[in-house]
Amino acid sequence: MMNTAIDVRDLSKKYGDRMAVSHANFSVPMGSICGFVGPNGSGKTTTIRMLLGLITPTTGDGHVLGEDISEPEKYLPRVGAMIEGPAFYPALTGTQNLVVLAKLGGFDVDSVQGLLEKVGLGDRGDSKYKTYSLGMKQRLGIAAALLPNPKLLILDEPTNGLDPAGIQEVRSLLRQLANDGATIFVSSHLLSELEMICDQLVMLREGKVIFTGKTTELLAAQQPMVIARPEHLKDLTKLAEIAKSLGHQMSILDDAVHVKGEKEFAAELNKAAFAAGITLASLAPVQASLEDTFFEMTGEQS
Amino acid sequence: MINVVRAELVKLKRASLSLSTLAAVLFITGLSTSLLFLLVDSPEGNGREGIRISRETLELPTGLSLSFSNAAGLLGIVALCIFAAQTAQEYTYGTLRNLLVRQPSRMKVLVGKLIAMKLFALVVVVSAGLVTFALSYLFAGVKDISTQSWGSADARANIVRTFINVTVATIGYGIFGMILGLLFRSPISAISIGVIWNLIVEGLLSIFVEDLAKYFPGQLLSTVALGGTEEISYQYALFTSYGFLAAGMIIVAILFKRRDVSN
Fold this sequence. Notes:
The structure holds two protein chains of two kinds.
Chain A: E1 4-15, E2 18-29, E3 33-37, H1 44-51, E4 59-64, E5 67-68, E6 79-82, H2 94-105, H3 111-118, H4 134-146, E7 152-156, H5 164-179, E8 183-188, H6 191-197, E9 200-205, E10 208-214, H7 215-221, E11 225-230, H8 236-245, E12 250-253, E13 256-260, H9 265-275, E14 280-286, H10 290-298
Parallel strand pairs in A: 3-8, 3-9, 6-7, 7-8
Antiparallel strand pairs in A: 1-2, 1-4, 4-5, 9-10, 11-13, 11-14, 12-13
Helix pairs in contact in A: 3-4
Chain B: H1 2-12, H2 15-38, H3 55-58, H4 63-70, H5 72-92, H6 96-102, H7 106-142, H8 153-184, H9 187-208, H10 217-226, H11 234-258
């Protein structure tokens, strides 16, 4: 029995002098929903394309569903994928586009209508793809990825262009597929999206994997924070010094002092600020989000 | 491979493509046949490049299929455009990645596409033949040209030969289009280069430079459609043109197999 759906070892892709993906190592457990996070240009799509046999790695190797990525024909019939947004024939209807892919993969053409209904396009299957909104195109891309009844679903930014209701539907769909036993590998720049649905994470920056593990582990690595904003901007530095003198790490961001500490520290800081003659306009303990952790680890600005 | 053919036929059968192709074929064959018959008495000529084809020639058993073989070059251009567009659009629409995820064997995708487009070209040629033959009878009646020998065994054999030659030539033009589509990965570039090459570069150079037609694939394919000419034999035209096409296909197939799909 396989334990990992995706296993990548030292995988690299070089274009000229630029390393698009540099010695990536990660694995995705079977049955998990794994988020693939990274800023634009970090190498997410290149990695996904290597996993799908579309790009040949420069070095390294990988396995998908137990098969070597150099032999994609052995595992792709069990993999559904949407890469870098949906791509279909504009002059064909949604149904015809799916029929093309169903026939190509040797899948049951009769399943097309059911899939369209599953993604909320049941009544628009006969409309031409070129008349679809971005959200509808995205749904059609997800339907196409579901054609093989996949053991592994690889989705590149699946919620792009969807309205909040659509995002919620995709989230539910992914959970349902995971409950049915599928492994889901989903990339997104919406970190909050992944935080809500993923139990595993692979984080990439400039082609390098900077974190791989459970989402809960990542969140645990981040301390809670207290954000204090003085009434007068001139007190900002003084307030930061007070926080520092109380033995906490702090930083100044957006006219506020961000202090690493439990929520109980808020009362202590408030008292110290009051004693120093500083009035606080706001004081809020915040739960660290995946996004905060991510930006801290990657050094990106939120 | 059969799955690729079935999938490609869904795309080729779409109304916008099949109807516009049929309209183009009707126009081309209608024009070619009407010019051949209605200008039969014109001193300016009624054939390709001002050649005069007499009543007596049209009344021969070969008369029925003359306009069909004359239209082969233009049918070939239609095939070139369709093959080039159908191949290159996979890159511009980004749909190639979908195809290769569902069928990872790139050679199967390539050969399946080629077979499907050949079937489409066959339908185009049959449609063109039917229109040409019907119009030939119609215009022969209008211009008082005897059609007595058109029903003979010789005429039937000639129709079969012409049909095969025109099909081979049309598919040859199509393969040329596919090569350009794979090379340039853009329908506009592939079609414009293909049409300019065939109609302008080859057309003009072969008029002004003696014997050059022997080395141009488009000119050789036209010769195949005509069943050979006095200057170029049928066998030479067939083997040389398809030799060029085979070499071109091998090069683009290697490129197609090895190139990363990064769009």
